[in-house]
Amino acid sequence: MAYAYWKTGQHTKKAHFELFFRKNPFGGSYTLFAGLDEVLKFLSSFRFSQDDIEYLRNTTALCHCEPAFFDDYLANLDCSEVIVHAMKEGSMVFPRVPLITVTAPLGIGNLIETTMLTLVNYPSLVATNASRMVVAARGQFWEKTAGASLPRSMTPPESPRAGALSSAKPRKSMQLSEGGPSDFTRRKPKCVEFGLRRAQGPDGGFSASKYSHVGGFHATSNVLAGKLLNLPIGGTHAHSFVMSYTSLDLVQDAKVQRVDNGEMVLLLPLVRKYQAELEWHDTNEGEIAAFIGYASSFPNSFLCLIDTYDTLQSGLRNFILVALALNDLGHTPRGIRLDSGDLSYLSLECEYLFHEIGDRFNRSFFYDLDIVASNDINEAVLHSLNKQGHAITMFGIGTNLVTCQNQPALGCVYKLVEIDGEPRIKLSNDLDKVLIPGQKIAYRLFGEAGWPLLDYMAGIHEEAQPAVGERVLCRHPFIEQKRVAVIPSRVVKLHSLVFDGKNGIVGELSSITESRQYVNDQINNTRADLLRYVNPGEYKVSVSEDSFRFLHNMWQQETPVTELR
Questions:
Q1: Is there a contact between 6 and 107 (Cβ–Cβ < 8 Å)?
Q2: What is the pTM of this model?
Q3: Looking at the predicted structure, is the pLDDT value of residue 142 above 90?
């Protein structure tokens, strides 16, 4: 295609492209835009090497091409004439509104298409998937640790009962109603990405670690991603670690340093003492040995996988025995991990026993232990657990996160909308595939309640642009009867210049932490119906009156009239 442009002299024409998608993924109402940082790095370094050119020159498809195409055009091609505007990394975005716009000579504008799509499609998909899972895991809940303001719709109830619940120690606790008084007293689960071993190769695994963090995940088990991206890392030991210990003889010399005086103390006698006191003599001995071995190595981050043999009758009890011994020496255990079985029931049973032991031995740390759950968790499982009630404080999610199993591709497209100042349109029998022609300016209009009401696109040359306090007629792009008048309390222009040809990248790129914070702020200030798992609300994307008329006039002009006889 590039050769055809060059041969016919079209390659230097000024073209305008838009990168967008037509439908939100996962049956939802929003998408998160991610991958802009990699797009800008790509544009900054785009060149054909001599090896590239020689390879292309000798391919069957191009071996007939004139030498000047390779030696004069491709050899000197870069992005010095490419101008890019984009939304902010982590933006909540909606169908048809461009994520990125590119103004460039037609030849280079087309050559960068595929790479730009691949650098946006998967990052945006996995960030969206992660965000939906975080919302599902925490329920309709504000993430305190993110530093955002409490959303208007989630102000906790102020009543004597609510106060009593927050100060009383729960017993066999149930998450009674999502968002209800008891829901506010429980720690909300965090999500950790466990997907590297199931991702589509190491590149996919690294990208999933990066963009799941943008979407709201707390940490990753991918240590290389943690190192290169400065992400929090987390994980637990495997079943094989427990299975490798067969006898208490293997840990009879295992010692842990006492916090108060530095003395090295044998763990096994302390564990035996509590085993006798609690009369728990029928647990798996190899499992106790494994837990002692792990505790002696990680006394300040002791978190055990407890379902290798029997979760409640062996793993949970063995963890408690070693946890009590560790705490005698001044260390605070972290918690347990469940990787099989009925996660709702098991987590509540574990929490119940933790509270009983905490009361019996006056150990307050038992009320703060993490209960980590894994085992093929997806968004539907998270919502189901919320309905059933659970005591899980952290979810380790792998396969269904990184492979985006419910929808493996986002479907971004990159379309030409203007050439040499002349708007272009693509028509289709499928209404969703009809292109809105011409360069546009996109805005987000906010209402009095502070929520975004809709996104609004107007032609770049239109005199009337939306303003605060002024009535704006917003039209559905294709359905004449669908229209609404908006008087915005705030108007935000959605795109900014991010790449300026020879001047390269414009401004500072957002860090991963900043993008994650931006995502959280938007989620917390979005209409609750847009976050629903079942039958989510629809967010409006509209065009101006002039753009609506222009689109439909051009549609008629470019559509052949069928003649019947």
A1: yes
A2: 0.91
A3: no
